[in-house]
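Here we describe the complex-level prediction in full. Unlike the single-chain runs in Section 2.1, the two entities below were treated as one system.
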Amino acid sequence: MKRIVSGNQALAYGALAAGVDLVAGYPGTPSTEALTEIIRFSSENENAPWVEWSTNEKVAFDVATGAAWSGKRALATMKMSGLNVALDSVMSVAYSGTTGGFVLYVADDPGAEAGMPEQDSRLCADLAGLPMLEPGNVLETYELTQKAFELSEKVGAPVLLRLVTSVSHGEAELEADFAYHLRETTPYHNRDITRYTKAGSKICVDQHADLLKRLDSCEEIYESSSWNRFEILSGAALCVVSSGVMNEYVGELLPAYSHVSSVRLTATWPVEKKRFLPLLRDHESLLILEELEPVLEKALRSQAQAEGLPVKILGKMDGTLPRTGRYGLKDIRSALAAASGTGDAGPAPASATAYRHTITFCSGCPHRGTYMALNRAIKKAGFKKKDVLVTGDIGCTILGMNGPFDSCWTEVSMGSSIGLAQGFARSGFDTPVVATIGDSTFFHAGLPPLINAVQQRADILVIILDNGWTSMTGFQVNPGTEESLQPGGRRRVSMDALIQAVGVDYFEVIKPFDQDAAVEALAGALRMKGVRVLVSREECALTRERRKSFGPGYSIDQEKCTFCKMCLRESGCTALSPVQYGEKTVMSIDPDLCRSCGLCFTCCKFGAISREG
Amino acid sequence: MLKSVFLTGVGGQGVVTIANLLSAHLQDSGYKVTLIHATGMAQRGGRVTSEIRYSDDRDRPFGPRISSGGADYIIGMDMAETVNSASFLKAGGTLVFQNYTLLPSTAVLNKESFPDAEEVKRVFAPFTGNLVEVEPSVRPVNMFVLGVFARYWPEAERLEETLSKKLTKRVEENLTAFHRGRDYRTEA
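The structure predicted for the assembly as a whole is:
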């Protein structure tokens, strides 16, 4: 069967073809759709692996480890930021190894198309001493995902499977059976504390030695596979070395160059030193094509140095290629031209003004109501907006950083807003410090800093914008999602009970579309001392829309509109835009976009906005 | 041959839909195709791009992303994003753009200037082969613009068959808009 699929989907079907027994992950662009596809598959097929969105990436990795240590095949999925969250466990499990096939899928994002750092997770392969495979297209992703489970079982180590955005989001045709190949296995775990605990220095140092042996054993497996293609031409002066998606561009451009050797890697860690040695000896120069950090370049430079070889290494460290960003054909073309002394770098790009579409909340988004209420409450409580520091957090809630709200001042990592606010509050500001965080982010990593705040008697206001879903990444279920909407009889965890059990000084639930009451509650909480937590609760407009309509929308009486723009200034709603009405300009509401939240109605002093019908 | 189509706009304009249709059509016509959408902030009023590359040689390797000067065609649904994408068009390439700009609220409030059709033409005219402006007069406008594009795209043969096969919702309305686009009078 042929289907057009993305790299993420190919990875999902590769895991299903390998008979994966358990899949756990946490959403994060550009990795999300791998697990989403397995959920879709399991909802349509009785025969399917256990699959879950876990509370965070560390939990997902731990759950997957339990299965792998039972001899089952396990897959954990996450983006690079999530790998950092899971890293404590990843390091430990790397030392212990695995019995069942264990694949950790991590997606990196050169060019930071989805925001967050341009982290290169290949460094984690080095750090944790784990083998890494890096497919460069849809077909390779499908095949190497299956091979990754086999490699993991053969070597006895978890295998990192790394995609970059261009591969995970890139779509192409895949011929496969798109089926689950269940393997009948019996769970087993041999109790062995020298392998599965870390208590005692001898245990850990021995495990370290075992880990290095496992890593060494990869090289032979790589050599006997077709994963790394060495095409060495005798007498060639230049060899181009690339990995992952870079291989595709090399394949596109290299036919125009005569007599250039090439190495195209998809098994990228550990580096196959044995096969690189003759190549380092026999070429005048090597051009290394890799996005983000010079991982391969450093390994080859150090090998050349150790062997006392004069080969010239061209890459990032000598300035041949840019140090940051996603590489396009253009970068590779210029590097090839520079390294070979032939070919054309191509025309210089035409320059144009950059217009920016500021991103904001969707129309009908409850977060808009929360930030509007916060701005109004700051004023009502007698503070100036420029004096009230608001720490933001990851997810849709961070869009409060943009105009017209201009609320959030900082964004660090999942759950960090609550800890950060405590540090700011202890630094001597005489105005309130506020943390804003979404529901999924709160469950993910917001609870420990809240516990800290209570124990340390911190003085902060925490606003949890609870829309019931992990929306930014595409509306995944989380522990707080309505029980009736939880898949397969899973349960809802009460956020309210959790927060109150921690023992916060003040707790209240507000409704973001009931502006008057929300402003009142927020203004009161701003003036209080201690740990105050307000949960602003209303379902995500886009998930709600899938189940029920919003009813009649709002409209503007163009006779009454004075074009004061207060509606736009306070709400910034995407359904509002200026139009010509006879001689004058007035505001209007796009009926196709209005989701009847009524926030614009609360802004109009001229009674020009009303609900239809 | 190896060719590229770059599509751009903002969330809600149906850029992804027409890119998927073009990709499916090329696939059905026997080409090797890659497609990648960048839609991270689409639902929040942000930029959307879709990049399609295709070759009649199914064994030919090529990367998924279009580099500057690498697009044979640009379809622009929003003029700000069209201007932002100018560096992607090959000299002599074809631009089909909709005369529409989504003004973000901050732009209205801060009186930031956003490009009009004259600005688009000024930027593209010096290096563009076919420069086609589309007035958004028929809805759904993405299918209308696709219809206009089809007139300038040699691979459009039997595109309607793909549309009839792949469209699942409001098929008649979509096909009508596509036909209206095909018949749209433009000054090339």
